[in-house]
Amino acid sequence: MSKNGITLSNGFRIKPVVLDCCLGVDGFGPPGLFFDTFNDFIDRKNSTTICKSITRHPKVGNFGSSIFSKSGWAMTDYGFPLPKKLCYLPIGGNSTVNSFGLTNDGFDDFLDLDFANDYVFPSIFLEFGKGEKEDIARAKQDAQYMGEKLKEKFKKRKDVKLVAVVLNISCPNSGHGVCLISNEIVEVVKIFKEAIGNIPVGIKYSFLQDISLAKMLHENVEIEFHQAINTIPFKLIFGDDKFSPLSHIGHGGVSGPAIKNKALNYAMKLRSALGPEAKIIGGGGISNLISAQERVLCCDSIAMGILVNRNTIEANKIIAHFAN
Q: Residue 237: inside a domain, yes or no?
């Protein structure tokens, strides 16, 4: 393991701290109080931004469509956006629950966006539905299409460089079929890898997916890095008895300190299964420097999401620690 981040085959360095999916699909983040953006506050120079996940087709998300929904960025404590996009709901102990619903304008729109950085590091959410044959066939078609288009489009663009892609294959709800189809996921990832060519590809897993899937991908596909989770389903943290404020839309996923121990345990299992040479980004429950230092014991880079929006000062403190 390296405490200096992850250097990919194309020379791009994923820094020790990753801003994971919290600054929208374009990396600009939500507006601030005075029409500035989070880019004016968060230290992007010493961190790496992974874009909010995008899907093949547009999604309005679980909170409906509004002028605030298109870039898919997360809710802040400062009251923006209002009120349809109230995505993060506090549940005590600085933890939150959300069920954002993958709000984005779709893959084709993403290709023509302006980006906050001179590089773009997209997260592609591969939809496997219930894991049935027609779902797998559609996932294969989407993987082929998105891989080819990414390679073609960013080869022509001079303003921004495509440096890597993370395939988000996580299943946000416990009944999701993608948790049960490891062999099919490997096939789809192979299709995407072949379509995109020599662009480095990583995989992001759900807490609900067995570590054996990561081992299969590590051994059978040229995966350059693995990313371990960002949220955990509400019921797995609090059980069936506690009421979720998002019970009407699947109970939501928990972020923040409440999931720290489970997320750390998952990352440790991932390290044990993949070995010391595997490159791992670990997220979930990182809320201060101590929890960040715990995570780098088994991960090469750490991923922060909700902390970036809720406590930018603490996030910058963590970034500065590892930058030095």
A: yes
CATH number for the domain harbouring residue 51? 3.20.20.70
Q: Of 257, 309, 323, 252, which is closest to residue 284 (Cα–Cα)?
A: 257
Give the whole-angstrom CA distance, residue 138 versus residue 136: 5
In a domain, 241, yes or no: yes
User: Chain-wide mean pLDDT for the chain?
Assistant: 86
Which residues pair with residue 253 across a beta bridge?
98, 233
Is residue 226 within 8 A of residue 205, CB to CB? The reply is yes
Give the DSSP letter of residue 92.
E
Euclidean distance between CA atoms 187 and 133, whole angstroms: 13
- Segment (H or E) for 90: strand 89-92
User: What span, in angstroms and rounded, lies between the C-alpha atoms of 92 and 257?
Assistant: 10
Structural domain harbouring 66: 6-323
**Residue 1, domain member (yes or no):** no
- Rounded to two decimals, the pTM is 0.91
Nearest to 116 by CA among 23, 20, 13: 23
What confidence tens digit (pLDDT) does each residue in 103-117 have? 788 999 999 999 999
Domain total of the chain: 1
- Tell me, yes or no, whether 84 lies in a domain: yes
With CA atoms as reference, report the closest residue to 23 among 46, 41, 5. 41
**What is the structure's pLDDT at 85?**
39
Helices (H), the chain: 107-110, 133-156, 182-196, 211-220, 234-238, 260-274, 289-295, 306-310, 312-323
